[in-house]
Amino acid sequence: MSVTGIIFSNIHDKNLPELTRLRTMASVPFGCRYRFIDFTLSNMVNSGVTSVGIITQTNYQSLADHIGTGKDWDLATRAGGVKLISPHITAFANDHIRSHISSRLESLKSATVYIARRKEDLVVLSDCDVICNIDLGDMIAFHEKTGAAITLATKKMVLTPESAAKNVIVEKDETGRVNDLLIYPLDTSGEHSVSLNIMVLDREKLLNIVNDAAAHGYTSFNSDVILRHLKSEKIMAYEYEGYFACVSSLSEYFSCSLDLLDPKVRNALFGVKNRPIYTKIRNSPPTRYSDGVTVSDSLFADGCLISGHVENSIIFRGVTIGKGAVVKNSIIMQDSVISAGAEINCSVLDKNVVVKEGVRLSGHASLPFYVPKNTIV
């Protein structure tokens, strides 16, 4: 069967306000040279999905710049390819209407025309902040084999009450059929299957769901669609066993980024055979390390100039670290400058930040210090 993909770029922006003030969640930088959406797009392309619609709402200029024609994902085609679906909001809409599109179902209402015009049989829906390398082809085959109406991707995880409150827990029987959803439950812990916010369903069925939601005022895919149809429809869970992270706060972004320093995590994301993670290509010279610098347990993109001490950190493209500067346990984004003698610890510096000579910045692993884009400290 032919498959199209739909990605939600904005619905979780409020989870990471520091990094989404001027960009969508989809275009948040991650892992030296990637954006969040690179993982979702690559998962689709690697599974043969060659037409993808990205639903946008606000602040999507950086996303549009990053995606371009889609050539870096081999999506620059006349038939299919990648398309940004802009919001259908009139100039006379009030602020309530403009801010109301905050769920998958509400977002899909603005993509009704796109869904109706597609010719593919199935649709893969995915959030943009799902950090994993999943074989969607296997999930689609599972969906077809089981004859499911909807298939949800899940992963078994050990949850604390705090982490459970940020996840949708999927309860299923021995065959994998979903019999209940616990949506952001309180006082729940232990091992549970959580939703990865990836699902597969028939395109015509999706169109009917969206039209029905518009007619009845439904807003939540989990509450108003899946829970309502658990008994009348066959809804299955596809268990994913690889690495998975979903970022819902700055501290989680910080910890997930530093997880990449673990070779096992890097291999789980970037070392999967025949499933590379693609991103926008930027031709830059190799990173240059000056004589006498000390670097340990860190990741560097290209185009950097390193003249100081770097430890346990993620360094993006084009970063300059001056002589005698010390960077520890931090994330330094593209084209930032750390001047001579500056000290950075447990911090997240957005793009084009300049830290002057002798300045000291420090946060904590549980509460990293954040410096906004284009700031001079």
Give a description of the structure.
Helices cover 25% and strands 28% of the residues. With 377 residues, it is of the alpha/beta class. It has 2 domains: 3-270, Spore Coat Polysaccharide Biosynthesis Protein SpsA, Chain A; 288-371, UDP N-Acetylglucosamine Acyltransferase, domain 1 (3 Solenoid), CATH 2.160.10.10. The strands form 7 sheets. Strands 5-4-1-6-11-8-12 form a 7-stranded mixed β-sheet. Strands 14-17-20-23-26 form a 5-stranded parallel β-sheet, with no helix packed on it. The longest helix has 14 residues, at 203-216. The radius of gyration is 21 Å and the shape is globular. The termini are far apart. Mean pLDDT is 91; it is low at 90-94 and 96-100.
Summarize the structure.
The protein contains twelve helices and 28 strands. The chain has helices at 17-20, 36-46, 61-67, 95-100, 104-109, 112-117, 136-146, 161-164, 203-216, 221-226, 250-259, 263-270; strands at 3-8, 29-30, 34-35, 51-55, 81-85, 122-127, 130-132, 150-159, 168-172, 178-183, 190-202, 235-239, 244-246, 288-289, 295-296, 299-300, 305-306, 309-311, 314-315, 320-321, 326-328, 331-332, 337-338, 343-345, 347-349, 354-355, 360-362, 369-371.
